[in-house]
Specification:
The complex is a heterodimer of chains A (about 100) and B (about 475).
Chain A: H1 2-23, H2 30-41, H3 45-54, H4 58-88
Helix pairs in contact in A: 2-4, 3-4
Chain B: H1 3-27, H2 31-52, H3 62-79, H4 86-112, H5 118-145, H6 159-179, H7 186-202, H8 210-232, H9 235-258, H10 263-269, H11 271-274, E1 287-288, H12 291-300, E2 303-308, H13 310-315, H14 318-330, E3 334-339, H15 349-356, E4 364-366, H16 367-373, E5 379-383, H17 392-395, E6 414-419, E7 439-443, H18 446-463
Parallel strand pairs in B: 1-7, 2-3, 2-5, 3-4, 5-6, 6-7
Classes of the chains: A mainly alpha (about 100), B alpha/beta (about 475).
């Protein structure tokens, strides 16, 4: 039960932390924010890797393998496109104008 | 290495990954540090994956290796799509992420059955329901955005009753499984109902509501990963899922506020249909202008505010707009861009398109900044935006968009609107902005029209 409680603590703290950190992201970068969190969310790959490698029945191995592939594509694609987008955001020549 | 040492190393690596993920999002707050954020995320992810490969339970690496290679092969093209395809790519990656959590949840169920503790089974139920419904809903959203499926809302009688009973059914089955995890025949039914719910949930949603829906699906994908963290007892997953979940949640709140609507209204409102009665096309006179007139007005202005909308994206006009920006800036005209939060098909869509066209990001203003400026602006040039510029939202209580925050385009000295014709926008509402004496309508395709203004201005410039 103490495991459950400490996990709940982590969930609540992380949700509040996420709220505070993400609130500061400028609306300018909302699209890269979404693709970056998408890549980070693919951390589900760590669960999938263990299931794919544990060999606990064909069904589990097949599902685990597919899940690793799906998450890995999100990791690679998500980081790649986020970086491509961010590279395009350039400041103007004179920042203190207008 | 003994198993204890290995699991200790894994935990330490996971803690570092968590810290890097948080830094990654922290650095994303400003364009200057944002790319460092991506790097931090990549290092964190690499650490977490490398550490997981040390897990003592792993017997065979064959399938893991194959899956990682396949994932990269699929992921690289998905990372290289053109910027115009970013909304559908994002929806597709939500689908992949949700699919992964639903599959891991399913595997965990069949590995554990029939001895699954109640709490684990509850988390598993949440993980599988959210994962499955997000999978089909995101696929539908991607299909609508790619225009493989019709963008308009599809509605039928009793739709909300059907959807809500499906959801209620899924929750009931999940509760039954929590009490009797051994009733394994219920598990496939749970998945099928959740998949069906996700599919039906997005059918009634129209194109202009996509920013809210994509954000909401982002949030669901995060929550299902967090639920997976509870099943697997992994704090790393709980944190990453909570970060993604809160990010999606914040974006959904911003998007629905920008449309002055609630989540329930977006999901169960089928906006387009409600509005049909509101269409009253009156034949009122409008003033129109040609490209050379428009060019002359722009060149004579000292400040111009461009208001881009989804129409600019559809017409792929962003590069022409950039040429216009260059020409006018060279003549000493201050050109800036006013971006409504729900312009386009996903949060931040316009910013990415304009950044791709090399418009400096300090010229992109958000709604509040832009509204402070409009009264001082000589010319507001609206390109492919409609409802977000309708002054009726401020004063006409009978208007369906009353109360929606808008860009105060009508406060500029002169307004020019590039539009294909006089047809009303997505919500089917006539825009009174078009009939005011200070508004000039520029009829034509956004890309072609901006192109002719550019030609007009550059030939003029050459003559001098």
């Amino acid at each position: 039960m103490s495991d459950l409680m400490s996990n709940l603590y982590v969930l609540v703290l992380a949700a509040f932390l996420g709220f505070e950190v993400i609130r500061r992201v400028s609306p300018l970068l909302h699209t890269p924010l979404m693709s970056l969190t998408n890549a980070l969310d693919a951390i589900a790959v760590v669960g999938a890797i263990v299931i794919a490698g544990e060999q606990r029945g064909t069904l589990a191995t097949v599902l685990g393998t597919l899940a690793v592939a799906a998450s890995a594509s999100n990791i690679v694609g998500g980081f790649l496109i986020t970086d491509r987008m961010l590279k395009m955001f350039k400041a103007g020549p004179k920042t203190k104008s207008s | 290495m003994s198993p204890e040492v290995t699991s200790y190393i894994i935990e330490v690596a996971y803690i570092c990954a968590v810290a890097l993920f948080i830094l990654s999002l922290r650095w994303l707050s400003a364009p200057a540090s944002a790319r460092r954020g991506v790097l931090a995320g990549e290092i964190g992810m690499g650490l977490a994956i490398a550490a997981t490969l040390l897990h003592h339970g792993i017997i065979s690496y064959q399938w893991i290796a194959i899956a990682l290679v396949v994932g990269c092969v699929v992921g690289v093209p998905l990372g290289m799509v053109p910027m115009t395809a970013v909304p559908q790519r994002t929806a597709l990656s939500h689908a992949f992420g949700a699919l992964a959590t639903a599959m891991v949840g399913t595997a965990e169920y069949y590995i554990g059955v029939p001895n699954i503790p109640r709490f684990t089974m509850s988390a598993l139920g949440i993980e599988v329901i959210l994962g499955s419904l997000t999978f089909t809903a995101s696929l539908m959203a991607a299909g609508k955005l790619q225009e493989v499926l019709p963008q308009r809302p599809i509605t039928y009688k009793g739709q909300n009753v059907v959807n809500l009973s499906l959801l209620a059914g899924a929750i009931l089955i999940a509760i039954t499984l929590v009490l009797h995890p051994e009733m394994s025949y219920l598990f496939p039914i749970l998945i099928i109902i959740s998949l069906a719910f996700g599919f039906l949930m997005v059918i009634p949603i129209g194109g202009a509501d996509m920013p809210t829906v994509i954000s909401l699906l982002n949030s669901y994908a995060g929550l299902s990963a967090a639920a997976m963290g509870f099943v697997l007892q992994s704090k790393l997953l709980i944190v990453a899922g909570a970060l993604d979940g809160s990010s999606g949640f914040i974006l959904s709140v911003i998007m629905s506020r920008a449309m002055n609507r609630s989540f329930t209204n977006v999901l169960f409102g089928a906006f387009g249909q409600v509005q049909e009665s509101a269409v009253k096309i009156e034949q009122k006179p409008v003033h129109s202008a040609t490209a050379d007139e428009a060019g002359a007005i722009l060149a004579a202005a000292s400040s111009v505010m461009v208001v881009p909308g989804y129409g600019m994206a559809v017409a792929q006009a962003q590069h022409r707009v950039r040429e216009l920006y260059d020409l006018l800036s060279r003549r000493g005209v201050s050109v800036r861009f006013a971006i409504h939060p729900v312009a386009g098909r996903m949060p931040g869509h316009m910013n990415v398109l304009l950044a791709e066209a090399d418009v400096p990001y300090d010229k992109l203003l958000d709604m509040d900044e832009a509204n402070l400026e409009f009264p001082e602006v000589d010319v507001a040039l609206v390109i492919g935006a409609n409802d977000v510029t309708n002054p009726a939202a401020r004063h006409d209580r009978s208007s369906p968009i009353y109360g929606m925050p808008i860009l105060d385009v009508d406060k500029a000295h002169t307004v020019m609107v590039i539009k294909r014709g006089m047809s009303p926008g997505f919500a089917g509402i006539d825009n009174e902005l078009y009939y005011t004496p200070k508004t000039l309508m520029l009829f034509g395709d956004a890309k072609a029209f901006v192109g002719s203004i550019v030609r007009e201005l550059s030939s003029n410039g050459a003559a001098h």
